[in-house]
Write a structure and sequence with these properties.
It contains eleven helices and no strands. By secondary structure, the protein is an all-alpha fold. Helix 1 packs across helix 7, helix 2 runs antiparallel to helix 4 and helix 5 packs antiparallel against helix 10. The two termini are about 25 Å apart. About 25% of the residues are buried.
């Protein structure tokens, strides 16, 4: 009995739910919901800032919120980021490498979102704020986001070189995809649970800060810290599966490297500036170098690739 053949006999009932939950019509409905939520959140946040700024009903004394309209940009961007996380779950069964690339997209968007968060902390009408510390804080967000965007683009260009002609269907490959679909369904349920618990905890912290003062919670630790902690174990799970279904040195090494990259992304979410930028850049650069070496290792004649490599993308 060949490696992984015993697994082909295991029934995976949740795999069918993936095709039901994530069919194209449902994805389009979610897209429309996200767009509507982002617009509504943006308008409501602007309205709240307006009310606080002009001290309607004594809100300025009750709510210790920053009356800076730039802060409202942060709300729709956060909602769009949640959609990107959902897409991360959707693409899991399609490609492990693309799955990691989507994580890089998310950390890049989180970095550019930090610019909107940080710029709103300053009163841009006051000339004394324009100091070296101001330039360093804002410049780190911008430079970090640009470099991350470049590295992510490079990652996808290299990923395109790993694509192989579609191999003939096999029971092992189909079983591998079914397992990844099951993982995506479980992950989507966990995503929903984390969303509710994280949002509830965040709103409670905001209420406490607004009423009693103190520091606002780090937005990157809301939801994303727990979610990327889960991503680490998902990557380890995929690493084990790749050993069962492929067992080739290059794929195992690549997937092990992806685990390291995800751990670095997780660290970047909770590290203070500028270390958060450094860890994010290191995570994505490591992924780019990893995929580049994977491409170099697999520079073989096409027929040899078809004969020896298992198509786990």
């Amino acid at each position: 009995m060949g490696k992984g053949s015993w697994l082909s006999q295991i029934r995976i009932p949740l795999a069918g739910w993936y095709d039901i939950l994530f069919k194209e019509q449902n994805i389009l409905r979610v897209e429309r919901l996200i767009i509507g939520s982002a617009l509504l959140g943006f308008i409501l946040h602007l309205l709240l800032i307006f009310l606080v700024k002009h001290d309607f009903w004594g809100l300025m004394q009750v709510l210790e919120l920053q009356a800076n309209y730039l802060k409202a940009i942060y709300t729709p961007f956060s909602i769009i980021l949640f959609y990107e996380v959902l897409m991360l779950v959707v693409i899991l069964p399609k490609s492990i490498t693309n799955f990691i690339g989507k994580q890089y997209e998310i950390i890049t968007l989180i970095t550019i979102r930090s610019f909107f968060h940080d710029i709103a902390d300053y009163d841009l009408d006051r000339s004394e704020i324009y100091t070296f510390d101001f330039l360093k804080s804002i410049g780190l967000d911008l430079a970090g986001a640009l470099i991350l965007f470049f590295l992510t683009t490079l990652y996808y260009r290299l990923f395109a070189k790993t694509q192989k002609p579609q191999l003939k269907p096999s029971s092992r490959r189909d079983q591998f995809i079914r397992i990844k679909k099951t993982a995506a369904v479980v992950l989507s349920l966990l995503l929903l649970l984390l969303s509710v618990t994280s949002l509830t905890g965040w709103l409670f912290e905001l209420y406490e800060v607004s009423m009693h003062g103190g520091h606002f919670p780090n937005p990157n630790t809301v939801f994303y810290k727990e979610f990327f902690s889960v991503m680490i174990f998902v990557d380890v799970f995929l690493l084990i599966l790749s050993f069962i279904y492929a067992g080739t040195y290059d794929i195992i090494f690549r997937n092990a490297g992806f685990v390291i990259s995800t751990i670095l992304v997780r660290i970047a979410l909770t590290a203070e500036k500028p270390f958060n930028i450094y860890f994010a850049l290191t995570a994505v650069f490591f992924g780019v170098l990893l995929i580049a070496l994977f491409v170099f290792y697999n520079q073989k004649p096409l027929q040899e690739q078809l004969d020896t490599a298992a198509d786990l993308e």
